[in-house]
Every structure is written in structure tokens, then in C-alpha cells.
Amino acid sequence: MSLEPSYEFANGPPAMTWGEYKPMALDEYRRLLASASSEKQLQVFFQRNPSFVPGANGDGCCIPENHPFALITQPPLNGVTGRVPDFMWLTNDSHCVYPVLIEIERPGKRIFKQNGTELRYEFTQARNQLTQWRTWFSNPTNWNVFVERFGKHRHLFFQMASLAFVRS
């Protein structure tokens, strides 16, 4: 049995500059928003372009002074009830780590009914998912499962999740 590697590393193309990447990715994102018929299409785009996931720059969905350091796609959070969010940022400040869960919805979903004041079922369903996450994290058993899976230092994890609803 040979211990020599059966692979070799090859140089890939040089990394794009932000100035090259941003217009190209924005164009793709706009086309996707105009045509996306499923959340899966958005999921794939965000996986390939994590800078478009809210919170990448410490914006609105993360606690402002926090700095996201990891984006996890569909993190399995098994516990008393098994649920899978679309994304989870792990952010931190000087002494805590915070999970920020993100649920995406397809762009065509409307928020309000025809009368413009009542919320549509689709919106309340998405909002209820976020409430379910908050409830999930409030259960100590689930919190312990989360910390065991995603954190080596239990004392660093703040005991409440920040939640975000993403609608492009």
C-alpha cells in the first residue's frame, strides 16, 4: 500500500476583485428575484454568494456590534423536535457567540391580502417558523444539543437566538 497521495493541487483562476464580482453577482441576483419560483433557487444562490445573506456585514439581522464569523447552510438542529433553518450565522462580540437563524422565502410571496391590511397565510406561516425557532432555543435540552454540536466552549454561547426573516 502506497502512502503517496493520489491527487495533486492545481492553481485555479485568480480571485475576482470586489469591483468585478459585485456587478456580476448583483445582475444574477436581480434576474433570480424576477424569475425564482422556489426557495431552493435562492438557497443555491446564497450558498454560492454568502455576501448576499443578510448579516454578512453586520447589517440589520445581526446584533450591530457583532461580527459574523461562520455561515452554516441548513444546519441540522436536532433536539426534542428536529427543524432545519435555511441558514445560520454565528456571530460574536467580545464575550459571547450568538446564533442568527435565517429563513428565506421565494420573492413572489405576497405579504398582504388584496385589502392591503391583512397578512396573508404565507407570511404568517413564515413568521410562525421564526417563533418556533425562538421556542426551540428556549428549551434547555435543545440549547444543550445546539451548543454540543456548534460550540466547544459552552460559556461563550448567549442563551437566546436572534432570528431574521428574509424577504428580498
Overview of this structure, please?
The protein has one domain (39-166). It is 34% helix and 15% strand. The protein has 4 helices and 4 strands. Strand 2 (87-92) and strand 3 (97-104) form a beta hairpin.
Secondary structure tally, helices? 4
**Largest sheet data:** 4 strands, mixed
**Percentage of residues in DSSP E strands:** 15-25%
Report the C-alpha radius of gyration, rounded. 19 Å
Order of helices and strands: HHEEEHHE
Largest sheet: spatial strand order: 1-2-3-4
Secondary structure tally: strands: 4
Q: What's the rounded overall pLDDT mean?
A: 75
Helix content: 25-40%
Q: Which runs of at least 5 residues are low in confidence (pLDDT < 50)?
A: 158-168
- Global structural class: alpha+beta
> Roughly how many Å apart are the termini?
54 Å
How many domain units?
1
Shape descriptor reads globular
